[in-house]
Amino acid sequence: MLSLSSFLKKAATPSSLLLAIVLFSFLPLQQAHASYIDPNTGSYILQIGTAALFAALYTVKLFWKNMVASVRKLLTKNREK
Question: Which of 14, 44, 52, 68 has the fewest CB atoms within 10 Å distance of its CB?
Fold first, then answer.
């Protein structure tokens, strides 16, 4: 079984160790704070949802004839058998 020290000896290069030290040195500097969604962000999320809904509806509209034709073809093929 591979222990942590042997793993670090094999996997850690000086640059990766330096990167880890730099990244983990910023952890104590972060403070807890209250976060919120401002009205602009909420409006943007609403716009994205509305755009996704209309894109889905438009896609169905574009392919509606093909979908109906393929369903009819399947139904008529089953009736003939």
Answer: 14
The pTM for the full model equals 0.43
- Identify the residue whose tokens are 């509209």: 61
Q: Cα–Cα distance between 57 and 49 in angstroms, integer?
A: 12
Query: What are the b/e assignments for 5-33, b being 16+ CB within 10 Å?
Result: eeeeeeeeeeeeeeeeeeeeeeeeeeeee
- Exposed, middle or buried, 55 (CB in 10 Å: 0-12/13-18/19+)? exposed
Residue 76 has pLDDT above 90, yes or no: no
